[in-house]
Design goal:
mainly alpha
Length: 138
Amino acid sequence: MSTDKRDELFERLHHWFGDSEAANWNEYTTEQVAKGVLHAFTPAQWQRLGETLLSRPEYWQHRCAVSLGELRSPPAIELLKRLLVDSPYLDVRVMAIYELDWSEAAIEPRYAPCILEIMDNLSAVSYTHLTLPTILLV
């Protein structure tokens, strides 16, 4: 794949995610990003996404988490686990848990302390409208 094609995929990813939280986003966009952009990523592009993901704003990480969950490929699952552990945004971490659960991905026991921390934080901020999915700890 040429450098131009690789850059084009990243440009498409940025186009779909938008330049702000106000940019158009819906469940159809999620599927388009997952199946039309992320599905075509090369290993080098997955690495690039992994290297830049945590420097992105909250809305961008959130949209990425939802799209990764839609794709459910091994590299997508790995990035969801990275968001679960390393994202500075509580809502992104919760979405990573949700998407991992929805994908029925195995979540190794080493993630349990992180999940418990997130649950404690949810209790602290009183997310009464949100219930966490059942997490499969392998």
